[in-house]
Amino acid sequence: MTGFIETLRYMTAAQKPAKGVSVYTLFVNRPAGRVLAALAYRAGATPNQLTVLGALFTFPALAAVALVRPGPGLAVCVCAALAVGFALDAADGQLARTQRSGSPSGEWLDHVLDCVKLVTVHLVVLVSFYRFFSLPSPAFLLAPMLFELAAVVIFFAGILTEQLKRRTTAPAAPAAPAESAPALRSVLLLPVDYGVTCLGFLFLGSQHVFLSVYCTLLLAHLVFMAAFLVKWFRELR
């Protein structure tokens, strides 16, 4: 038990900076991932194994959304599986930093699976809308397509911006601890946090509520996509 606590403390000290993350990632997903990473470290697991384990939680849950008629039981199971998969996605990086075993191949695997996940989550919602929902209008079938567009553009443009900044700017000063992140910014970023999208599936059993939640998150993603693209372009100029 003492070794586990020490490992947890070390991972906390080696945590990534809090800039650009929401309160869900900061106070829920990263702490949960830290516990999973510490358990994996004690068990001798590798970061890639955690990445694959996260996929094993995520993709069967997404397949169920497309194949099973929505209901309260399915909603709880899907939400829980997606949340665990997201926590494992945070755990693999923390484990890699603890083991000092990060590698280009591991980062590649993590990002590729993240991209597949972002595409798949909205594809299965589209299928579920078509098969099981009584939509107010067929136009609502466009919602998952637009959501997928916004989510993938934000994901790709964010990574590309980060890589280009590394090539064109001098090394930055050490980042401030997570607790110093501006509270307002962390709250404002909540609608575009993947974890909040996962929580949205908790309402899958009620078609009208889920449709309202999903479309609200879609609008937030479209607004943030436009804002992020302008911001990142200006920064790179």
Automatic annotation (TrEMBL):
Gene3D superfamilies: 1.20.120.1760
Highest taxon, organism lineage: Bacteria
Membrane-spanning ranges: 73-91, 139-161, 182-203, 209-230
UniProt keyword list: Membrane, Transferase, Transmembrane, Transmembrane helix
Pfam family, one: CDP-OH_P_transf
PROSITE patterns per UniProt: CDP_ALCOHOL_P_TRANSF
Entry's family note: Belongs to the CDP-alcohol phosphatidyltransferase class-I family.
Protein name: CDP-alcohol phosphatidyltransferase family protein
